[in-house]
Specification:
The complex is a heterodimer of chains A (129) and B (174).
Chain A (H helix, E strand, L loop, with lengths): L2 E2 L2 E2 L1 H13 L9 H41 L14 H5 L5 H21 L3 H8 L1
Antiparallel strand pairs in A: 1-2
Chain B lengths: L6 H23 L2 H17 L9 H23 L25 H14 L4 H10 L4 H8 L3 H25 L1
Classes of the chains: A mainly alpha (129), B mainly alpha (174).
């Protein structure tokens, strides 16, 4: 067997497998399968523990950052904020009578225009009445 | 790789290739217990990296993992050795650059293990003989000897620890 670049070449590995299978095949220790499965289970549990700890660190880091922001954010002076309009001011703006009439006049004009475009359908309906 | 998607199918996969992987590890390391650990590590790595398998030749892929682990183990063992006199360096564990790997016969390794098992004090010699050489499980040994399974398991564990010490002393003597 030769070692190139630290590990066996493909040819050397194939030759090793053939040699072992033909001449030097021995039985694995008893309970080998159960030992392997126990090792796998242990490795899986360790991996899950590590992942959970990473998750906890991320959550704690986020909470710490949020708390830090609460204390470190610059203070905002109330005078710098423009005064907001009060509720009375907002609802105090009511439409005047003239404006309402204008609106109705506007609506009447709109219906008149529509009637003309449709060939006076509404006029005929009124005559029948 | 269809056959290791679930735990059950992976168990069948291990059963199919356990002897081959262990034999390869034993041949490359010459140490029964190191081969056992490396073979277990091989299947663990195969399970963890099953998504990287291209699906062509699972036997070659698995044996590639085993051989790479054995070579890494040999190099790490060589680095751990404290160089003293040349005669004291265990030749079986040295990998010289640009020299072929020492070919170790598995039968020689098993014979050395047999000698070490017989050298143990009772009752560990009988337990080691039944477990390591005859390949019986703890349950089968307990049934044969009429003993408690947990007792047998403890004895197997202690026999293993004693064997590791005496077995590695024998390897260093070579």
């Amino acid at each position: 067997m030769s070692v190139e670049n630290k590990y066996l070449t493909d040819e050397a590995l194939t030759a090793l497998i053939l040699e072992v299978e033909e001449k030097e095949f021995v039985s694995a220790p008893p309970e080998f399968v159960s030992d392997v499965m126990a090792k796998i289970t242990k490795a899986e549990e360790k991996r899950k523990t590590v992942e959970f700890r990473r998750y906890c660190i991320r959550v704690l880091g986020s909470v710490a950052a949020a708390i830090a922001l609460l204390f470190w954010m610059p203070d905002i002076e109330p005078k710098e904020i423009e005064e907001l309009p009060s509720r009375q001011e907002l609802i105090g703006k009511t439409i005047t009578r003239e404006e309402a009439l204008d609106d109705r006049t506007f609506f009447a004009k709109l219906m008149s225009n529509l009637n003309q475009e449709m060939g006076g359908i509404f006029n005929e309906a009124e005559k029948e009445k | 790789m269809e056959n290791i998607d679930s735990k059950d199918s992976f168990i069948k996969f291990v059963q199919q290739y356990q002897n081959l992987v262990f034999s390869i590890c034993l041949k490359l390391t010459g140490d029964y217990f190191a081969a056992e650990d490396l073979a277990q590590e091989t299947f663990l790595a195969a399970y963890q990296h099953k998504s990287e398998f291209d699906g062509e030749n699972e036997k070659a892929w698995l044996c590639r993992i085993a051989s790479n682990k054995c070579i890494d183990y040999q190099r790490a063992a060589a680095r751990r050795m404290v160089p003293t006199l040349e005669e004291e360096l265990p030749k079986a564990h040295l990998i010289e650059r640009n020299e072929p790997l020492r070919s170790i016969l598995n039968q020689e390794v098993m014979e050395e293990l047999r000698v070490c098992c017989h050298a143990l004090s009772p009752p560990y010699d009988e337990i080691a003989n039944l477990y390591f050489l005859e390949g019986k499980t703890a349950k089968e040994i307990a049934e044969q000897l009429g003993a408690n399974v947990h007792t047998v398991q403890t004895q197997i564990y202690r026999a293993k620890e004693k064997l590791k010490k005496s077995y590695r002393k024998e390897l260093l003597k070579e």
